[in-house]
Amino acid sequence: MNLNKKHIISWTLFDFANSSYSAVIAAVVFPVYYATIIVGNETGLGDLWWGRAISGSMAIVALSSPFLGGIADYGGLRKRFLFLYTALSVAAIASFSFLHKGMVIEGFILIVIANLGMEGGLVFYNSFLPRIAPPEYQGRVSAWGFGVGYAGSILSLLCAIPLVRAGQFELTWLMVASFFALCSAPAFLFLPRDIKGGFSAVQAGVKGFTFTLKTLKKMWKRTEFRKFLIAYLIYEDGVNTVIVFSSIFAATTLGFRPQELIMLYIIVQITALLGAFIMAKPIDLWGPKKVVMLSLLLWTSVAIIAFFITSKTQFCTLASVAGLGLGTVQAATRAFYIQFIPEGKEAEYFGVYSLVGKSSAILGPLIFGMISTTFGSQRPAILSVAAFFLIGMIILSTVRGGEPNIKK
């Protein structure tokens, strides 16, 4: 199987597109806007509502992922559903422009819809990877996707800076919606066509859901795979919690202003981009397990140190270091998981992957929000994140597998 450059470029460009959502909406500008302006975060109430929105949307995605995987596998509808979920997210993001102070419930509903469209679409997006890249290139292509995604984050944040400085938040959300829609278009034009299945979408979904549950039972009987899924569930919870709360922590606890948050996140995205590309080949050469372990060790240390941070300069330095492991841990984890997938079961297995990954975004944000409101401080909540990384790393260390993809 040779690499089709058109497939690879269009696949990575989708990551470029959706990273505008990840950066501006999920991570930097909108979380602070919703928590501090729409809700109010003086007592941690904004943390609690943001955590509820992210956890609720992720729970929906987690429960529906096996159904979606079945549609992709048996219905031959992966590209069409990728488009529908993307369109749903784009429409919800554009609707953020109607929100104003006090619209807590309306904002909550729109966040859930936008996140559902974004995260649900990733089930179909991820399922294309084994179709467009042979095993010896999957680690690198996976990392390229994350790397190009970080470039998309940087560009979208640069576009957001003048709008945020001018207080034009409504135009900021419309910019993200346009960025996401336009830059994702190549994926719908050039990724491999859907292979027509013998089932309707509903039949395929039901069949996929039933078969995925059977598959999950089979997976659970595979000791190493079971340990991998448990480790992934735990440490990915830490990753997701950091992504959705880091900007709120910086704004609420350390006093970062919106434009300072954007510049900080751009720096993090640059280091994440460098980390993803530098570690792309080592994922295949050293093996994804070793790369994930190194990344988790880095993030555990960063989370513990963050507890003691008191200045913006210290936080900027620490965040830059953390960025080096952000794309690396995600790309290496995806490459590790692929080694467990039987041929022809890609979408179904990625349905389970999404089920576990999205389930991991349920507990962490809830715990962070609850600890923050209980203690009236975000610092104790940071230690819960460190615990997720440490426990996940310990369990992953016992997993046999994750060997190099390149034969020496």
What can you see in these coordinates?
The protein is mainly alpha-helical. It has one domain: Up-down Bundle (Growth Hormone, Chain: A), CATH 1.20.1250.20. It is built from 15 helices and no strands. Helix 8 packs across helix 14 and helix 12 packs antiparallel against helix 13.
Keywords:
408 residues; mainly alpha; Growth Hormone, Chain: A; 15 helices; 83% helix; globular
Distance between termini?
Answer: 20 Å
Helix content: over 70%
Task: Return the string of H and E elements.
Answer: HHHHHHHHHHHHHHH
How many domains? The number is 1
Topology summary:
Layout: H1 5-39, H2 45-74, H3 78-95, H4 104-127, H5 129-132, H6 135-165, H7 169-190, H8 201-221, H9 223-252, H10 258-278, H11 280-286, H12 288-306, H13 312-338, H14 346-375, H15 379-396
Helix pairs in contact: 1-2, 1-4, 1-6, 1-7, 1-9, 1-10, 2-4, 2-8, 2-14, 3-4, 3-7, 4-14, 6-7, 6-10, 6-11, 6-13, 8-14, 9-13, 9-14, 9-15, 10-13, 11-12, 12-13, 12-15, 14-15
